[in-house]
Amino acid sequence: MSGEPSRQEQTLRTIIEGRKMEAYVEYRTRDMQVCWLCGTISYKKTPMKAVGSRLICIDCFRQIREVIETMDQWEAEVQLEREISKKVGEGISL
Question: What pTM was computed for the model?
Answer without folding.
Answer: 0.53
